[in-house]
Amino acid sequence: MIKLLAKLLRVLNSETDPGQISLGLCFAMILGLTPLLSLHNLFVLLLVFILRVNLSAFLLGLALFTGIAYLLDPLFHLLGLTVLTAPSLADLWTFLYQSMWWRLEHFNNSIVMGSLMFSVSIFVPVLLLSNLLIRRYRQHVMVWVQKSRLMQMFKASKLYQTYETLSSWRPG
Amino acid sequence: MTKWIRWWGLGAFVVFAAILSCVWIFAVDGWVKGVIEAAGTKAVGAKVEVDAADLSLFPAGLSLTRLQVTNPKRPMTNAVEVARVITGLDGLNLLRRKVIIEEMALEGVRLGTPRATSGAVKPGSDVSPEEEETGMFSLSLPALEVPDVKNILEKEGLETLRLLEALKADMQREQEVWESRLKGLPGKAQLAQYEERVRNLKKAGKGGLEGLLGGVGEVQALKQDIEQEIASLTGAKKEFEDTVVLLRTRYKQIQTAPQRDIQHLKTKYNLSPQGLANMSQTLLGPQIGSWVHQGAAWYERAKPLLEGARTVGGEDGPQVHKPLRGKGLDVHFKEAHPLPDFLIRVTKVSVGLDLGDLAGTVHNITTDQPTLGQPTTFAFSGDRLKGVQSVALEGALNHVEPADSKDQVIVQAKGYELTNLALSKDAKWPVTLTSGMSDINLNAELKGQALTVHGAGNFRDLHLSAGKEGDPNSLTQALSSAVAGVSQLSLQADVTGTWEQHDVTVSSDLDRILQDAAGKMVNELAEKFGAELQSAIAAKIAEPMQQLKDNLSGFERIAGELTKRVTQHNDVLNSLLEKSLPTKGLKDLPGGLKLPF
């Protein structure tokens, strides 16, 4: 975990495109919030592999959102159940229910539906927000943090040593 | 754009997917084995074990090697052991989370095989003791000695005496009531008053026209008074006669009560030949009843599978089913081509029994018949088996409409050899069927809760042994002799009711044979016992009956008094109308006036 945090710090402080970090976090959000063994997660994983998203951000986000998912399960259940039993959507769900792939997706489960709807609906806002926050961090916070007394103490810590070690491995 | 694409990532994904697939392929067999064992153990309540499971994808199928299902009541014995189970799975439906097996073959099915280790889930917790068989057959043979009548009458409460005492008390009470009522009814005092009023009227009649006219109103009033008294007396007389009729009826009933007492005591002390007329029921009824109970136990075990946890997409919109906690809820929708979640279309079974191999086919094993729309049917047969020429079993478990379920089983066995079958383990009269052959037909039907079973058997080449050596009892000797001579029999058995409460009716030639053999003997004893009882009861009730008769004659006096009073009142009325009043002059009333009576 220390290595992962160090990597994240390195990424935040590096020249990596904020979009790549944000996208990694957002993909991690879908994978972490929805049940792991779902068909859509295979697709998300494929995207994570072939798009140049930041893997450190993805892995850290995955750990973070998986933990959050346990807390949000009751909310996902309520949301999913409401959507699945909405009379106006019954025809759509009945249509999807006939499809083998959608059945394999297990869309008719309240937690799958609720968590997927939740994570997809906040995907773009989270992407934009995290992009903005990373940029602001780099512009305003990073320099101030570097000079702060706390950071000075942190630089003397084991975590920072690890960060430095990893930084030295960076090619080029 | 290319800065966003990581081409080596595609390769990495393929490698990652391949690794996952390999892990799945290597681990899935163990996972399937574990799932089957866990689910089976939970369902049976004892260990279900599989030596090996092999899941293939192309074509989709599953084979199990040595499936053992422990008998929950005997943890060291397998209820069923199957050498090999081969199934062909519908792969596409499996992706839709439906286990649809087109064909399943069960090879080397054996029942009651021993286990190397205990199959109890919790050691010692689920071992129920074997059903106690001794005492199951408690015969109710007719008695052989005439019981002591004096003792019986001392300890038995006779219906005759009970009726006698009740009638005696009622008579006493009625007599007191009527004596009291007689005092309140019109009698001599009222008669004397009326006679006085009549005399006064006569006097008034001699006082000319004015007196005559004044007397008309008085006469009418007197007539009404007397008629009211007569009506009151007549009503009381009628009521009294009804009471007496009722008491006399009860008296007559008491005269026939001793016969009922005698019949009751004969039955109670087993001196009735009816016991012999129903010996088939006595011998085989409990055994058939225990078979029905065994059938009920198996049926109750299978019932949840037949009625199942319905996961059908409803006709009336989405249906919600609650799975494990924390896993959310599955909402099911109507399917265009609905299929149950679990279905084995055809199961071919070969069962190795002690008497040989029995082969058969089961169609449509499912937990959700309403969705499939077809019942589970089965047919098994075996020829030239050890101890039976042929046996066929077929039936249907129809729960397509759960509210109108109908299960039926038909069994036919031809040339079934019977050996050492204990028909009665009673100490007084043990009966054993040493050897014999039989043809048996059985038709059992369970419609809703209503159970109907009809069985018919033809038995031939029978060798029966009955009784004990040196038996001093002449009745059991006669019965044993009769039974030993029986070489063929036909038997009918019917069970009606429900699994929990049912009546077993058994009849056979044996009833007639036994009645012929020992019925006369029992009848003679019964007649002797009856005669002794009759004379003893007659002696016991002679005095109370005479008292009742005397009490009844006491009622005649009351009846006579009531009749007398009615007559006297009528006489007074007649004398008033015909003799006591002057008729001369009444015809000449002015203005053609007429008397109002």
Tell me what the structure shows.
The complex is a heterodimer of chains A (172) and B (597). Chain A has 172 residues and is mostly helical. Chain A is built from 10 helices and no strands. The mean pLDDT of chain A is 85. Chain B is of the alpha+beta class and 597 residues long. Helices cover 46% and strands 29% of the residues of chain B. In chain B, strands 1-2-3-4-7-8-9-10-11-12-13-14-15 form a 13-stranded mixed sheet. A two-stranded antiparallel sheet of chain B has the order 5-6. In chain B, a hairpin with a 2-residue loop joins strand 9 and strand 10. In chain B, helix 6 packs antiparallel against helix 11 and helix 10 crosses helix 11. The longest helix of chain B has 72 residues.
**Helical/strand content category of chain B:** alpha+beta
Proportion of residues in β-strands of chain A: under 5%
pLDDT averaged over residues of chain B: 80
Cα end-to-end separation of chain B: 135 Å
The outline of chain B comes out as elongated
Segments of chain B where pLDDT lies below 50 for 5+ residues? 129-137, 309-314, 583-597
Order of helices and strands of chain A: HHHHHHHHHH
What is the CA-based Rg of chain A, rounded?
Answer: 20 Å
**End-to-end gap of chain A:** 26 Å
Order of helices and strands of chain B: HEEEHEHHHHHHEEEEHEEEEEHEEH
Structural class of chain A: mainly alpha
Number of strands of chain B: 15
